[in-house]
């Protein structure tokens, strides 16, 4: 009896102690922050502000920012998001809070296609991610590596010119976007896995084209499960099942390329290609290794991120030039003065073509192919621009709105390349971000910025210059009014793909 009394006495004491401890921890807890969350629309229960965002999220965010300011927070389904809508807000996140926001959210639709986030694009900022970026920069996408595969770009762009010339002979219009995707996938395939993916693999080539386009369009769909992870397992729209099937088809092809590549390793002894170099240097500083799955995921990244982004920008540039023929004529006059009529344009001509460069910059300003960049994600609480940003917040940077900000760009909706020429009001802005202003960041900025920005810029300038120099372009009769609507989604391609007639304008010897 006495023992039971002592037991309950001790138990009661322990309970009082526990409650006191918990209470004192609660009373003396460090407040997460005295700062407020950034302002934003309150939204409605469950959905949050999802219904305000719609398909054209970039333009709706820009509209909302007029009421709430350049740093805005809103709940999209279960997720807290912040949106940076002007250059100073972009700087605050991508420079000041770059390390905190260097991760990516776990986007349910992207899980399978990103090999469960073992790729470069959707991985968190892990040591493996860092090492993969380093390998890409050293052996593929950095300045020195880029120079090494100039012959591949030249050969593939010449094939494109030849294919367009043949369409002219057949009296057919040019399905430009599809042809650009094929060209760039072949360039990337050749340097990444040592083979063209569209032609030389026979039947395989067509399968690759279909699956690549399914992958590109599938990733842009709005999936309810991405905003409500607790019901994602239901896959209400069937998008996850579709993405899994696309991934399986794509991976089967990438595996074959990879296996073939491994089988032929001996034949490259002494002159290793990109994948050989990654496999041979697969260990990062902290000892984690790039696995075979990482490499397959990286190949997939390069074939997707490296093709549609540049193709979107080139298609828009040509559409803008067809809409403003005086601009096309000026590019042709400039390229003709520098290159002449007896050969095709070479990469080495580009530094001597300032107007062409200005046209490409203007296209990147008005038509950035990733208008909200890719989402970033924070793993810790932080304070940005005088606001409290709790951990696990998604960050979207509205590159589209930043490029059209009337406080920075005079007459922002006009396609006016002159603004980038010396003496122009935009002359100081560099799309690669070297000016440090954050006013023109089509490739993003900071440690998560585009890993292929040098090559992306080169693809755009080289392709636009070649297409304008080698051909006169004309819309089919009755279609002279070019539709300039963008297709809503993650990337912003033309809603109606450009189909124009091309007529060779150089001496026949130039096309041989
Ligand atoms: C005009 C062409 C291009 C544009 C406008 C563009 C734009 C972008 C943007 C905005 C991002 C996201 C940046 C961020 O989230 O902070 C990105 C990421 C990326 N881009 Fe590009 N890109 C282009 C071409 C390329 C090319 C040609 C390649 C490779 C061959 C490439 C590879 C990548 C990769 C691997 C990432 C992910 C980087 C990471 O998460 O660490 N891009 N790109």
Automatic annotation (TrEMBL):
UniProt keyword annotation of Chloroplast present: no
Entry keyword set: Heme, Iron, Membrane, Metal-binding, Monooxygenase, NADP, Oxidoreductase, Transmembrane, Transmembrane helix
Segments crossing the lipid bilayer: 6-28
Family classification: Belongs to the cytochrome P450 family.
UniProt KW Membrane keyword: yes
Cofactor(s) the protein requires to work: heme
Binding site for heme: 450
Organism whose genome encodes this protein: Curcuma alismatifolia
Lineage, top ranks: Eukaryota, Viridiplantae, Streptophyta, Embryophyta, Tracheophyta
Protein name: Flavonoid 3',5'-hydroxylase 1
Pfam families listed in its UniProt record: p450
């Amino acid at each position: 009896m006495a023992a039971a009394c002592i037991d309950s006495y001790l138990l009661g004491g322990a309970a009082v102690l526990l409650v006191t401890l918990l209470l004192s921890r609660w009373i003396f807890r460090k407040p997460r922050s005295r700062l407020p969350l950034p302002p934003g629309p309150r939204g409605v229960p469950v959905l949050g502000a999802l219904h305000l965002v719609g398909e054209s999220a970039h333009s709706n965010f820009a509209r909302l920012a007029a009421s709430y300011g350049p740093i805005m927070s809103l709940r999209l389904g279960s997720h807290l998001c912040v949106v940076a809508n002007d250059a100073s807000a972009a700087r605050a996140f991508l420079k000041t809070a770059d390390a905190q926001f260097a991760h990516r959210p776990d986007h349910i639709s992207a899980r399978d296609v990103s090999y469960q986030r073992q790729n470069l694009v959707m991985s968190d900022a892990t040591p493996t991610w860092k090492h993969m970026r380093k390998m890409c920069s050293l052996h593929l996408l950095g300045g020195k590596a880029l120079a090494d595969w100039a012959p591949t770009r030249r050969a593939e762009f010449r094939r494109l010119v030849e294919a367009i010339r043949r369409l002219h002979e057949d009296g057919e219009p040019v399905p430009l976007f599809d042809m650009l995707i094929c060209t760039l996938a072949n360039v990337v395939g050749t340097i990444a896995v040592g083979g063209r993916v569209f032609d030389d693999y026979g039947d395989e080539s067509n399968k690759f084209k279909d699956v690549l386009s399914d992958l590109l369009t599938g990733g842009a769909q709005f999936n309810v499960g991405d905003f409500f992870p607790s019901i994602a397992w239901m896959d209400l729209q069937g998008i996850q099942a579709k993405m899994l099937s696309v991934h399986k088809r794509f991976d089967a092809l990438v595996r074959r390329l990879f296996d073939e590549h491994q089988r032929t390793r001996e034949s490259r002894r002494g002159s290793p290609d990109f994948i050989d170099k990654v496999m041979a240097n697969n260990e990062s500083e902290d000892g984690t290794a790039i696995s075979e799955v990482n490499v397959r995921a990286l190949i997939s990244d390069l074939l997707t991120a490296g093709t549609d982004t540049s193709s979107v920008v080139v298609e828009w540039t040509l559409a803008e030039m067809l809409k403003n023929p005086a601009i096309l004529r000026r590019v042709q006059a400039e390229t003709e003065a520098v290159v002449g009529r007896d050969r095709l344009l070479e990469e080495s001509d580009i530094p001597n073509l300032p107007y062409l460069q200005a046209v490409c910059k203007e296209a990147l300003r008005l038509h950035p192919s990733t208008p909200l960049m890719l989402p970033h994600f924070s793993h810790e609480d932080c304070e940005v621009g005088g606001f409290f940003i709790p951990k696990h917040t998604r960050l979207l940077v509205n590159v589209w709105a930043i490029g059209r900000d009337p406080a920075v760009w005079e007459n922002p909706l006009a396609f006016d390349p002159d603004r980038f020429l010396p003496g122009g009001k935009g002359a100081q802005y560099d799309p690669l971000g070297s000016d440090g202003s954050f006013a023109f960041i089509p490739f993003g900025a900071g440690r998560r910025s585009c890993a292929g920005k040098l090559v992306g810029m080169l693809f755009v300038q080289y392709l636009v210059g070649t297409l304008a120099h080698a051909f006169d372009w004309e819309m089919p009769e009755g279609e002279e009014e070019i539709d300039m609507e963008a297709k809503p989604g993650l990337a912003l391609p033309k809603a109606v793909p450009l189909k124009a007639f091309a007529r060779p304008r150089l001496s026949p010897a130039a096309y041989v």
